[in-house]
Amino acid sequence: MKKINLIIILLVHVNITAQDLLLEDCYKSANINYPLAKQHDLLAKQSALAIEAIKTEKLPSIDFAGQATYQSDVIEFPFSLPNTNVDPLNKDQYKATITMNQLIYAGGLIDTNTELKSINLKTKQKQIDVNLYQLKQQINQLYFSILLLQAKETLLIAKLNQLEIKIKEVKAGIKYGTLLPASDQILEAEILKIKQLITENSLNRASLTSTLSSLIGTEIANSVNFKNPEIEIDLTSEITRPELEVFELQKEQITKTEQLTKRQKSPKIIGFAQGGYGNPGLNMLDNSFQPYYIIGLKLNWNVFDWNANKKQRQSLKINKDIIDTEAEVFTLNTTIELNKQLSEIKKITQFIDDDKTIIKLRKKVLKAADSQLKNGVITSSTYITELTNLYEAENNLSTHQIQLLLAKANYLVIKGK
């Protein structure tokens, strides 16, 4: 098992330090490296020790006892027997015993108790899985925020490259007198502004990447490329959240606790053997140190408990109903969240269609502005305005595309995929 975990850790590490980073890599890394994940093994060790302790009840128990007493009076015979000479008992008496008890029958109480411990372990481990699963929402927010900054940087660099090409054309126009002087300075100012935005964007990305690295427990280099995930949503599949598994395990816990409670009323048969050495021994008339032993069976059975056991089991059944209502509420709230997410997906999809139409129009306008700038019909400021309009339209499209991916990713997380 340790070898498998080591292989997984190495694979995740390789993916995260490679040139491309996938969203799934972040999920896997968080499940392995987040501090809470360590409790899986700790709980398993704790449960194993508890089960071993319970199973020892099937083994014989050995007790040693010693006693020395002095009493104010002892048994005396009020008459004398003919032809006998019985010494009076000593008032100081001594006894040392070794007693062994062996449980023979307990109505399956021990086995049921060990089964309950195993279910308790599964429930606690699944609750850890729930807490780790909830990290996906945080990972999504960070991952797609970085994707937005990454896409924005790509557009800024493209705009910068276009302006650097354009400024060469403008300077040539100024040189040959086709464009007014100082036309290039407006472009140079815009270039400096874009470089500032690229620097700011890079710092923001580094900050978010550092936060994501801390969350998933693995260092992510700034040179890593965050890839857009390919996400398909299935509207027909059922909700498979780990919380629902916790509810089922909690009901299993109650069922097993009911069985344990019922079996606590079962009769218990215990075999015992006692060996001793004392003065007096079992023969009270022999006033000397003697070895002795006793072998026998004991029966313990609480026949009547005023229905306390029955009422405990009835209370446990009510707990089952409470868990059912909690599961129903959780499913209802999850369904509402899924519907909200679907509405968001539809809205963003419509925005993307509009963005594509706007970009086509903006490109036509910019093409015309480019021709007019070359011919001195418009100023550099007007050209920059149209270029910025196209950049904003492309940025809106890129933003909406990533927002759509985020909405789909959140939809899958809400559904339990």
TrEMBL record:
Q: Which UniProt keywords apply?
A: Cell outer membrane, Membrane, Transmembrane, Transmembrane beta strand
Ranges annotated as spanning the membrane: none
Please give the Gene Ontology molecular function terms for this protein. efflux transmembrane transporter activity; porin activity
Q: Where in the cell is it found?
A: Cell outer membrane
- One cellular component (GO) term of this entry: cell outer membrane
Membrane as a keyword of this entry, yes or no, is: yes
Where does the UniProt entry say this protein principally localizes?
A: membrane
Q: Which InterPro entries match?
A: TolC-like
Q: Which PANTHER family match?
A: OUTER MEMBRANE PROTEIN TOLC
Protein name per its UniProtKB record: TolC family protein
